[in-house]
Write a structure and sequence with these properties.
2 copies of one chain form a homodimer.
Chain A (H helix, E strand, L loop, with lengths): L13 E5 L6 H11 L4 E3 L3 E2 L14 E2 L2 H9 L3 E7 L2 E6 H9 L3 E5 L2 H10 L4 E6 L3 H11 L4 H15 L7 E4 L5 H15 L11
């Protein structure tokens, strides 16, 4: 008779966190990792863009050459890839599959184009759109970063405007307010917790 | 430009908490009310069953006569009603509508039959199925209540078995473990928080 009532199926989730550049995806993910409340495998993206100050290879990104990236494409090793600001970015299918197989939730940080690709290939993926309260706040954050030229900034803002139109294709929208990082992370954790209690959780397969 | 990015639509939610008798729906709801983290309007059910010790009229239920209940049915005042163990139970449509109109989330505690009726009439309702780890635990809780005769207990257990088959029609399933009430309430609050961040929240209409 025991366990007859146990109808919970704790399947690992594939969660995609996306949103315009500058919205604070990395900061939010770092805090989630620090809190450790919901352990997850964070997918490290391969990129051909130059490493920035304070970034660590293999932690923030796998920094690879254009030749290495081309090889990954040829060998169909990539889950999806995109050309962003003239640089290549892509995520390894195998990395995602292995983490899910081990029973761990997987979180991917993707630009909106990448998120759309994943959703098409893996409809069970949970897409979370991170956004700022208004455009002004986004611009301020990009400026504070000081990694952009004036031209680069303009391009990013124009892109962000376009990208916002895709927000409605996401499953969840979370506001990342300037002074409420804790609240943002609370909401992300609530979404993950809730999704683990779905009555009919679809098994993620890729 | 301000608010251009604000694509959140905080619509009030209609949440239905259900599950077999004895699972602890009332206890869980009392704790949610005490915490006050997510204020909600709790729909007080009208019933013809006799008031129990420690129950308060208008708080636990509206205790009405069979004649009064018949009048409510005739006037189409009831959102749904059901005959449970020879007694009538029903919820006022107006009460739910008024609370939603004021912008508040509404929580209804319903037996599984009632939950199914609400979902049919209001597909936007979020159905949460509260359950115990196994049948043994449920039986123990019903026994501990000491409000049931041996016959009554048998009937409740048989009903619970039937009811469990409906769990899959719910949106969420939450385990209410014997020694982890706080955890149960955390999960319910996470579900409510997550649902408030849906990208395309359907407006509840009834």
């Amino acid at each position: 008779m025991v366990n007859e009532f146990n109808i919970l199926h704790p399947e690992p989730l594939l969660i995609v966190i996306s949103g315009p550049s500058g919205v604070g995806k990395d900061t939010v993910l770092h805090m989630m990792e620090e809190r450790g409340e919901y352990p997850f495998h964070f997918v490290v993206t391969a990129t051909t863009r130059p490493i920035r100050k304070n970034e660590v290879d293999g932690v923030d990104y796998f920094f690879v050459s254009h030749d290495q990236f081309a090889e990954m494409i040829e060998n169909d090793e990539l889950f999806e890839y995109a050309i962003v600001y003239n640089d290549y970015k892509g995520n390894s299918k195998k990395q995602v599959r292995d983490a899910l197989d081990s029973g761990k939730d997987v979180i991917m940080r993707l630009d909106i184009q990448g998120a759309a690709t994943v959703k098409k290939e893996v409809p069970e993926a949970i897409l979370i759109f991170l956004t700022t309260e208004d455009e002004e706040e986004l611009v301020n954050r990009l400026k504070a970063r000081k990694t952009e030229t004036s031209e680069g900034l303009k391009l990013r803002i124009a892109t962000a405007r376009q990208e916002l139109k895709h927000a409605k294709y996401f499953d969840y929208i979370v506001l990342n307010k300037d002074d409420a990082l804790d609240e943002t992370v609370d909401t992300l954790e609530a979404i993950i917790r809730a999704e683990h209690h779905r009555a009919n959780p679809p098994k993620v397969s890729l």
